[in-house]
Amino acid sequence: MSIVTPGFHGRGRPAADLPPGQYLTEDFPVLSAGPTPRVPTGSWTFTVTTETGREYRWTWAELLALPAETVTVDLHCVTKWSKLRTTWRGVPLDTLLADVETAADFAVAESYGGYTTNLPLADLLDGQAWIAYSYEGEDLTAEHGGPARLLVPHLYLWKSAKWVSGIRLSHDDEPGFWETLGYHEYGDPWREQRYQGD
Asked: Can you give the residue ranges of the Oxidoreductase molybdopterin-binding domain (predicted)?
């Protein structure tokens, strides 16, 4: 995970309804740390692991059988681009965590390929996060995190882990990949929490 591929050029136009320091883009830039994992849906699983080590697991077919939502959200990348009114379909984390017994306060999203990012568990609940498998009515491509990615649109996009394989719950806040390299622990775009100390 030592290569960062920006996949876009230039800047769009600023807009008044964007978080501070952001500019509007019409395309969907691709940024990745390392190679793009190609995960067949036949072997894909999503696992929630509690702080006690108990596991709750779903196959691809089981995920698709759960109640899903279509949501239209704005995306804000820490590299300063924003894309407005993007439409996704996926399973709310509220659904996946409904029967999970936990006293944890924090979560670490884990991905195929080894990427991780940390979040307060509260930011995955109450209609704020999804395991998304469709973008703009099409299957989510590998470049954008398919077959499924975490979608947490109220935070900077690095918190919406691509190629998600699971959520590990914890009593302690454990920094993920970018957080250990100096990115902000939380990542609120409206407060410009890009880097540690912001």
From this structure: 34-178
Nearest to residue 106, comparing CAs of 157, 58, 171, 182?
171
* Domain 4-191: which CATH number of 2.40.170.20, 3.30.420.40, 3.30.428.10, 3.90.420.10: 3.90.420.10
What are the structural domain ranges in the chain?
A: 4-191
Q: What is the model's pLDDT at position 32?
A: 72
Predicted pLDDT at 51: 98
Q: ∠30-123-99 over CA atoms, to 5°?
A: 110
Q: What is the pLDDT of residue 168?
A: 98
So what's the pLDDT on residue 16?
A: 54
Give the global pTM.
Answer: 0.90
Which residues are CB-neighbours of 154 under 8 A, at least 6 positions away?
A: 123, 128, 188
What is the per-residue pLDDT across 187-198, written as a single tens digit (0 to 9) for each?
A: 999 999 999 988
Q: How far apart are CA 170 and CA 20, in angstroms?
A: 32
Using DSSP, state whether 167 is helix, strand or coil: strand
